[in-house]
Amino acid sequence: MNATPYDPRTLLAESRLGILATIKSDGRPQLSPVMPFYDPEADVLYVSMTEGRAKTANLRRDPRAALEVTSSDGWAWATAEGTVTLTGPGTDPRGPEVEALVRYYRAAAGEHPDWDEYRETMVADRRVLMTMTVDHVYGDKIR
C-alpha cells in the first residue's frame, strides 16, 4: 500500500472557512467563524476582521490563537496555533493598514473589481488584518 502521509498544512492552504479560537478575559475560549488565508511558504495565516468584535478585543489583550479547518466531507481536519499581530484599522484608504488588507485580498482572492471601493470599505468598516505566525500545526485524516 502506498499511503501518502497526511499533511494538515495542505488542508489549511485549501480551506477558506475555519473557526478561530481566542481567549476571553476570564480564560475561556471564544470561537468565531472566519475566512482564513494560509501562505504555506511563509507559514503564516491571515484573517480580515472588524475592530470592536470579541475576537479582535481578545487578540489585542492576548495574542495567542488557534484556527481549525475541516475538509468539506468532514473526514479531515487541521489546527494551527500561533501568536498574532493586528494591523489596523486604518483611517486613510491609501495608508499602510489598508495596503496590508489589499495585499491579503490579492493573495487570497486575486484582483478586486474596484480597488478604490475596497479601500474605502476597509476604512468605513474599520477592518483589521490578523497575521498569525504558525508555531504548531496538527490534524488528522480519518479516511
UniProtKB/TrEMBL annotation:
Q: Does the keyword GTP-binding apply?
A: no
A single GO cellular-component term on record: cytosol
Query: Could you tell me which residue ranges the Pyridoxamine 5'-phosphate oxidase N-terminal domain spans?
Result: 9-138
Q: Does the keyword Hydrolase apply?
A: no
Q: Which UniProt keywords apply?
A: Oxidoreductase
Tell me which InterPro entries the record gives.
F420-binding_dom_put, F420H2_bilvrd_red/Heme_oxyg, Pyridox_Oxase_N, Split_barrel_FMN-bd
Any single GO molecular-function term of the entry would be: coenzyme F420 binding
Give the protein name, as stated in the record: F420-dependent protein
Tell me the organism's taxonomic lineage. Answer: Bacteria, Bacillati, Actinomycetota, Actinomycetes, Kitasatosporales
